[in-house]
Amino acid sequence: MPTKQKLTEPSQSLALNKDRCNFTTLDGRRCRMHRAARHKTLCLSHSLQEQQLLNTETVAAELIGPVEEYQTAISVNRALGCLFNLVAQKRISRQDGALLAFIGQLMLHSVGSTVKEEFIRMAGERRPAEWDANVRKAVEILTNDFSRRPVAPPQEAADHP
């Protein structure tokens, strides 16, 4: 049975430790991989994990942006667009991106219910007189705007001899 070769000189041990990754697990074991050339203390795998953790706050701020409540389809679509970009840039993993996209889809489906609830709530409250006047004015402007647009005649197919 082969035996492990013992290092007799401390300089050999120090040289091996200097080239090894310094990542230590919770139970005290040390990573056996060689240190990455672009990182001072970690192997490639652990340096990528460290970089991802450091970028988490930046990615979250970019994904969420100034939106605090997702009660409109516009705010949810903006977040989904940012999510698409982050997944395409590989700043978010595919699994996390898929989960967030699914949650975004659920949020989009609930936006209509939120709007209906808000209108029901507002209908029960006393609104200022200006509110009704402004709504009537907006509807009038929209209907007048559509009625003024010229309707293009349907194009007829050219007769072939």
Please, could you describe this protein's structure?
The chain is mainly alpha-helical and 161 residues long. It folds into 2 domains: 18-56, no CATH class; 65-143, no CATH class. It contains 5 helices and no strands. The chain has helices spanning 10-19, 44-64, 73-88, 94-124, 129-148. The longest helix is centred in the last third of the chain and has 31 residues, at 94-124. The model is unreliable at 10-15 (pLDDT under 50).
H and E order = HHHHH
Structural class: mainly alpha
Range of helix content: 55-70%
Outline, from the CA principal axes? rod-shaped
Instruction: Tell me the number of structural domains.
Output: 2
Largest sheet: none
- Catalogue the unreliable spans: 10-15
By DSSP, the count of extended strands is 0
Report the average pLDDT across residues: 75
Hey, roughly how much beta strand do the residues contain? under 5%
Q: What Rg is obtained from the alpha carbons, in whole angstroms?
A: 31 Å
What are the main properties of this structure?
161 residues; mainly alpha; 61% helix
Give a short synopsis of this structure.
With 161 residues, the chain is mostly helical. It has helices spanning 10-19, 44-64, 73-88, 94-124, 129-148. It is rod-shaped.
Please outline the helices and strands.
Elements: H1 10-19, H2 44-64, H3 73-88, H4 94-124, H5 129-148
Helix pairs in contact: 2-3, 3-4
